[in-house]
Amino acid sequence: MSVFHLEIVTPDRSFFSEEVEMVIVRGIEGDLAILKDRAPLITPLKIGKIRIFQDGKEKVAAVVDGYISVENHKTTIITEAAEWPEEIDIERAEAAKKRAEVLLKERPDGIDVARAQLALQRALNRIEVGKLKRID
Q1: Quick count: other Cβ atoms within 10 Å of Cβ 43?
Q2: Containing structural domain, residue 70
């Protein structure tokens, strides 16, 4: 299968930089599969999983927002945060989920509802991806 270079960068680190066969990301209008020689593209990403296909195997990571740029034989993902399943502290993610759910249920004065909803989405995504490490 044809390969292309995928680079995933966060403010803290170069998360991933290798040749891959395909990557699937969650764009603002749905999932996008990127293969070699795809037409150029720049689009925002939503909170979700990045599925990386390499040497016939799949790797999954949790990401928070950002954007994807596809050009020639290189795809770059810039994201606020990216984590492999084994890097995710599920207990911490569960606690963040509970905090966000309480805020959204009780809606105390001055609550930023959009921020609480995003916190809930991030926590749910981290929990889902974090549980993948227990399946392997």
Answers
A1: 13
A2: 4-83
